[in-house]
Design brief:
The chain is of the alpha+beta class. It has a single domain, classed as SH3 type barrels, CATH 2.30.30. It has three helices and seven strands. Strands 1, 2, 3, 4, 5, 6 and 7 form a seven-stranded antiparallel β-sheet that branches. β2 and β3 form a beta hairpin. It is globular.
């Protein structure tokens, strides 16, 4: 798993997940978030991504910062086993916007913000 990888999970109604960060030292840690439908005024609008910016979505979407997952084994192995269909990779420009949003969104868990600041 590398930053920009995007995929569905093998579960009913899976969101579109993507890797924001992957590190191997000192342990293998992967940070993933997912997209969800943009509902103006009803969701975290810190980072809105349009279909014209990323072909893996069909409508305006937002990053669900509150659902970010910072994983390492054994949780990471279980998560990898649930990965289903691949999506087009996400470009670096969008990943940089998403990372900036993760650091500013009030919905991003503190441990994820701390992790990103240390990278």
């Amino acid at each position: 798993m590398v930053p920009g990888d995007a995929f569905y999970l093998n579960v009913i109604d899976s969101h579109r997940y993507f890797v924001l960060h992957s590190s191997v030292n000192p342990s293998h840690k992967v940070l993933v978030f997912n997209f969800t439908t943009h509902r103006p005024g009803q969701c975290d609008e810190t980072c809105i991504v349009l279909p014209s910016e990323y072909s893996g979505i069909a409508h305006n979407s937002v990053v669900m910062y509150s659902q970010g997952r910072l994983m390492e084994d054994p949780v990471l192995s279980n998560f990898k086993a649930a990965i289903g269909a691949a999506l087009p990779p996400i470009g670096n420009d969008i990943l940089l916007r998403i990372k900036a949003g993760a650091l500013t969104s009030i919905h991003t868990p503190k441990k994820i913000k701390t992790f990103l600041l240390q990278q």
